[in-house]
Design the sequence.
């Protein structure tokens, strides 16, 4: 066996070998370091486990945690068609039935003989039953129940490798692995965050005396990943602002004043404030690198247009990029309408134009004849060149991380254009710091006057027919409707209505006299766009879709949004879907149609507010940051230890320390900071490249 180091392959540890190393690889544990950082996702304090005999006498609604051996399982259908997975578990004091409504697929995960931990409320259902909110398979038939009085770590496991086996592996090697760990951060940073050393933190999370001790260790690991992320964001921000000479625009009050005079509506106070912040950036010597965040319908496009016109009246060009062709066309139509009184016409550059049309637009951009252009991200790629690009506006840039945003710096010549990013996805400030810490931020937190709230109601399976009739009434009145489903196709794993089958059912059985369209993520982009164009033109009455229409599509004539299985969506996602209606003058409606057994409380909270930022806060509290970011990523780094709902203080501290550190030492070149740079290189694909880039 080679001398043990943190990068030693895990298979060389005693008790692992090739076969077990392969299983550990499924958990992304490939080295000794990976095993050390594979921290428990929860802890079992055996002193809090309730004997089953006491559960059977507990009142309905009581929260309990039990550990028992599974002696039987089965799937029970209800009279209303809901399938309930049930497992009977046993401990030394008795038997208890546990039920999971609507989750028959658990039959493949929870098997007879398994040692099971369950936590949740006691329910009345043919006697006492536990409906677990949390559960974990602690082991198989050969594993014993945990001793009482101990705090046991519960690790993420995989088929063929139990929690107990991973716990034993960590415990057997922890004393040899901990001395290999070297401190990453200066003492001053740790003191500012109120956390201890790295080696001590790892021992605390794997071998805690109490759950509180384990939490202290987790916070140290959380601070480390938040601090590293904020350093990368702060470095990217500095590069974006200073790596190229910025453009210092001057206020000429030509196009911008004309636009203000000819707008068919008054700007909100929030719009005026954001325009002022953006203009301050544009007239400074540094490059603008700003995020404009606003709720659906808050007027981001108009604010961006003022920035584009400031660039144009200074002799520069401005480009607005959208993630899809249909959104680019929508922006083009909006800008064309607003600019008509100014005798300015924007250009459109999208893939469906003919080769000749594209060539003509590219020629006008290269010569400088075209001052404003709208298109997809291809605008800054390939054959497209600008005479004098001064501003890039990027719509719905949330799908790109900090490293991609930093790469925009390299796309242009000597003068670096200002960059303004738009997002219609309200997110809490803590999440914004984690995702967009490299950007200055402006928030549009006010809707234009006269914009009517979307009436939101919660229906039920009993009233499905009434919902369908309401949709028909709206179509008969000349309007259109969306019906949203959480999945594309039906599956044995989940009892959910699916878009493809329901689109066929609606077209044949419910609305045979209407035009029913279908869009989802597996359709070719051209087919999706064509259906959306037909819907926008009014040729499709009812559009069946998944969340592919979540952001950006603007069809003023659509007045009804029906969302099936809303319990499967986050609150912020529901808000984005609701924002697809209410775009015109007519009264609009959002109807939630939950599945049987779904909690209605969270849906009532959603229905009670139209404030996207408040809903985002509720969503963060409810689901945590991981699901909100999508693939558990924040700027292309996985947050494994930090929880933005409870680590706000750590994030704020990391943000401040990182800004100060990059200000004082932009490349982190001090000898004491080299361990920090090494760790950044380990965790970020382009981390070292950012710190080796343009100095200063």
Sequence:
């Amino acid at each position: 066996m080679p001398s043990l180091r943190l990068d030693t392959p895990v298979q060389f540890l005693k008790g692992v070998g090739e076969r077990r190393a392969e299983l550990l690889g499924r958990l992304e544990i490939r080295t000794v370091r990976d095993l050390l950082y594979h921290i428990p996702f929860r802890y079992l304090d055996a002193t809090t486990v309730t004997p089953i005999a006491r559960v059977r006498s507990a009142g309905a609604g009581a929260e309990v945690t039990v550990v028992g051996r599974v002696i039987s399982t089965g799937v029970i259908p209800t009279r209303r068609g809901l399938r309930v997975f049930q497992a009977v578990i046993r401990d030394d004091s008795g038997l208890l039935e546990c039920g999971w409504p609507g989750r028959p697929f658990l039959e493949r995960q929870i098997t007879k003989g398994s040692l099971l931990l369950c936590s949740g409320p006691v329910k009345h259902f043919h006697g006492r039953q536990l409906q677990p909110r949390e559960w974990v398979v602690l082991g198989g038939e050969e594993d014993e129940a945990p001793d009482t009085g101990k705090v046991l770590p519960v690790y993420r496991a995989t088929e063929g490798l139990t929690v107990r086996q991973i716990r034993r592996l960590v415990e057997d090697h922890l004393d040899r692995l901990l001395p290999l760990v070297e401190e990453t951060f200066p003492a001053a940073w740790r003191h500012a965050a109120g956390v201890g050393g790295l080696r001590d933190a790892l021992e605390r999370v794997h071998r805690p005396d109490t759950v509180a001790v384990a939490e202290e260790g987790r916070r140290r690991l959380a601070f480390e990943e938040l601090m590293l992320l904020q350093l990368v964001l702060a470095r990217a921000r500095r590069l974006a602002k200073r790596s190229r000479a910025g453009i210092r625009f001057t206020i000429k009050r030509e196009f911008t004043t004309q636009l203000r005079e000819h707008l068919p509506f008054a700007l909100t106070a929030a719009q005026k404030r954001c325009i002022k912040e953006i203009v301050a950036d544009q007239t400074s010597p540094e490059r603008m690198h700003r995020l404009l965040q606003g709720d659906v319908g808050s007027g981001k496009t108009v604010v961006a247009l003022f920035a584009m016109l400031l660039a144009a009246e200074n002799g520069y060009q401005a480009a607005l990029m959208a993630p899809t062709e249909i959104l680019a066309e929508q922006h083009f139509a909006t800008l064309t309408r607003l600019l008509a009184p100014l005798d300015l016409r924007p250009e459109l550059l999208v893939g469906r134009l003919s080769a000749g049309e594209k060539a003509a637009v590219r020629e006008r951009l290269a010569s400088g004849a075209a001052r404003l252009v709208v298109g997809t991200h291809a605008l800054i790629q390939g054959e497209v060149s600008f005479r004098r690009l001064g501003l890039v506006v990027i719509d719905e840039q949330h799908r790109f991380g900090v490293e991609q945003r930093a790469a925009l710096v390299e796309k242009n010549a000597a003068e670096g254009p200002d960059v303004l990013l738009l997002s219609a996805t309200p997110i809490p400030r803590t999440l914004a710091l984690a995702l967009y810490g490299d950007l200055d931020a402006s928030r549009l937190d006010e809707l234009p006057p006269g914009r009517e709230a979307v009436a939101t109601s919660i229906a039920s399976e009993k009233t499905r027919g009434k919902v369908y009739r309401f949709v028909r009434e709206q179509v008969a009145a000349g309007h259109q409707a969306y019906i949203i489903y959480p999945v594309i196709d039906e599956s044995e794993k989940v009892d959910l209505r699916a878009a493809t089958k329901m689109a066929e059912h609606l077209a044949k059985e419910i609305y045979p006299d209407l035009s029913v369209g279908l869009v989802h993520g597996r359709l070719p982009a051209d087919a999706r766009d064509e259906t959306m164009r037909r819907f926008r033109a009014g040729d499709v009455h009812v559009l069946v879709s998944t969340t592919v229409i979540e952001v950006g599509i603007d069809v003023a004539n659509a007045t009804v949004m029906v969302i099936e299985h809303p319990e499967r969506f986050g609150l912020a996602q529901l808000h984005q879907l609701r924002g697809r209606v209410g775009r015109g003058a007519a009264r609009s409606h959002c109807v939630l149609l939950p599945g049987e057994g779904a909690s209605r409380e969270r849906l009532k909270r959603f229905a009670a507010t139209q404030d996207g930022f408040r809903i985002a806060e509720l969503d963060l509290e409810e689901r945590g940051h991981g699901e909100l970011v999508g693939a558990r990523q924040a700027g292309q780094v996985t947050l494994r230890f930090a929880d933005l709902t409870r680590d706000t203080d750590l994030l704020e501290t990391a943000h401040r320390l990182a800004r100060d550190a990059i200000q004082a030492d932009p490349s982190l070149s001090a000898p004491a900071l080299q361990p920090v740079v090494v760790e950044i290189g380990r965790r970020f694909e382009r981390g070292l490249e950012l710190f080796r880039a343009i100095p200063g």
